[in-house]
């Protein structure tokens, strides 16, 4: 059986990819390989110095790469609006919008500039708002794709609308799980809305298995106690590389075999590693009434209304 690898990315010349959190890990490798394929890439990052370092790394490998930087802090609706506005003012299309950035299992409850729990605010609300604002430029692309990065951590998640932002009883991992279920509900719900609107754009959800990135040191590793020490070490032992972890994202962004409204992840043991294939999410990810409720709440809280029928 042949596996899909980045070598199979079809030519991407003339395409533009907007990738959140592209300065490290999976987002960086997605940007690198799309640039290698000939796409222009926009590294949408909260820290411009880190984005510049990432751009230099890409250019060192691919001197002809077209790499731009957009300042974007998903934990601030003002920043999301300003990034979207500055892109929209260029009048260009986005062929590939990759909702990748994320934070995981922060030991203590923190909040975004707008007062939302930081993991949900960054991973879900920030991307929900960004996608809604950028949607006109994806819809005008000839075959736009929106790829949202979820996780196997969506399994066992709960969405408690009475305590959505963990005002009480904050737990780092359940809070992360909630965001990754929200990513799935959003991506699959967006697919249904795009289909109803008869839009050609696709919405696809992926997960990278378990990949060795900064996510673990920045999240659980930033706390105190045994988990802080163990999390990054355990990950180094069991995880695949960040380049390998980027394959489902790249497959969803570029393969002709991918279908809108489907979920892709690695094919290996418990989907923790391997090569991209279609995978099945947990049942509640396909719960349309749950997705609709989250959508309504997300529109209300972000104040971003999608120009698509519900
Ligand atoms: N690694 C895994 O095993 C794994 C498994 C399942 C799912 N995922 C998902 O994969 C995605 C990428 O994570 P990764 O593993 O590649 O980790 P990573 O190397 O830590 O990358 C995360 C990226 O998100 C950015 N980011 C965090 N908060 C942000 C904000 N407020 N605004 C804008 N950007 C922000 C980070 O920027 P800074 O560098 O400035 O912090 C970084 O560029 C995440 O959605 C994660 O949930 C990863």
Task: List strands and helices in order, with pairings.
Elements: E1 16-20, H1 25-36, E2 40-45, H2 48-61, E3 66-71, H3 77-88, E4 96-99, H4 118-139, E5 145-149, H5 172-196, E6 202-206, H6 215-218, H7 226-238, H8 242-245, H9 247-254, E7 263-266, E8 276-279, H10 288-302
Parallel strand pairs: 1-2, 1-4, 2-3, 4-5, 5-6, 6-7
Antiparallel strand pairs: 7-8
Helix pairs in contact: 3-4, 4-5, 4-10, 5-10
This protein binds NADP nicotinamide-adenine-dinucleotide phosphate (NAP).
The site of NADP nicotinamide-adenine-dinucleotide phosphate (NAP) has 33 residues, from helix 1, helix 4 and helix 6.
Largest sheet: 8 strands, mixed
Briefly note the CATH topology name. Rossmann fold
What oligomeric arrangement do these chains adopt? single chain
Q: Low-confidence parts lasting 5 or more residues at pLDDT below 50?
A: none
- In the CATH hierarchy, what is the architecture at level 2? 3-Layer(aba) Sandwich
CATH class categorisation:
Alpha Beta
The rounded distance between the terminal residues' Cα atoms is 41 Å
Tell me how many strands there are. Answer: 8
Which percent band covers the strand fraction?
5-15%
Question: How would you describe this protein?
Answer:
The protein is 42% helix and 13% strand. With 310 residues, it is of the alpha/beta class. It has one domain: Rossmann fold (3-Layer(aba) Sandwich), CATH 3.40.50.720. The chain has an eight-stranded mixed sheet, sandwiched between helices. Helix 4 links the parallel strand 4 and strand 5. Helix 3 runs parallel beside helix 4, helix 4 runs parallel beside helix 5 and helix 4 crosses helix 10. The site of NADP nicotinamide-adenine-dinucleotide phosphate has 33 residues, from helix 1, helix 4 and helix 6.
């Amino acid at each position: 059986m042949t596996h899909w690898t980045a070598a199979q990315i079809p030519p991407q010349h003339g395409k533009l990819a907007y990738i959140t959190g592209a300065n490290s890990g999976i987002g960086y490798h997605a940007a690198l390989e799309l640039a290698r394929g000939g796409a222009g890439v926009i590294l949408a990052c909260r820290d411009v110095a880190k984005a510049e370092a990432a751009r230099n790394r890409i250019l060192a490998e691919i001197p002809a790469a077209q790499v731009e930087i957009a300042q974007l802090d998903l934990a601030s609706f003002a920043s999301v609006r300003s990034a979207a506005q500055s892109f929209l003012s260029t009048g260009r299309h986005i062929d590939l919008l990759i909702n990748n950035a994320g934070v995981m299992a922060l030991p203590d409850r923190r909040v975004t500039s707008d007062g939302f729990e930081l993991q949900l605010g960054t991973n879900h609300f920030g991307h929900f708002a960004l996608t809604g604002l950028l949607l006109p430029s994806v819809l005008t692309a000839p075959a736009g794709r929106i790829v949202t990065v979820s996780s196997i951590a969506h399994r066992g998640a709960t969405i408690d609308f009475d305590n959505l932002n963990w005002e009480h009883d904050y737990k780092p991992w359940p809070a992360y799980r909630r965001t990754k279920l929200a990513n799935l509900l959003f991506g699959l719900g967006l697919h249904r809305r795009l289909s109803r609107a008869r839009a050609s754009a696709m919405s696809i959800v992926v997960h990278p298995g378990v990949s060795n990135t900064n996510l673990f040191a920045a999240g659980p590793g930033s706390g105190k106690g045994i988990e802080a020490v163990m999390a990054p070490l355990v990950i180094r032992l069991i995880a695949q590389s960040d380049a390998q972890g980027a394959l489902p994202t790249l497959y969803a962004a570029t393969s002709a075999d991918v279908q809108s409204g489907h979920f892709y992840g690695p094919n290996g043991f418990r989907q923790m590693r391997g090569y991209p294939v279609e995978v099945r999410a947990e049942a509640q990810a396909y719960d349309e009434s749950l997705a609709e409720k989250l959508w309504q709440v997300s529109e209300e809280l972000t104040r971003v209304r999608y120009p698509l029928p519900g």
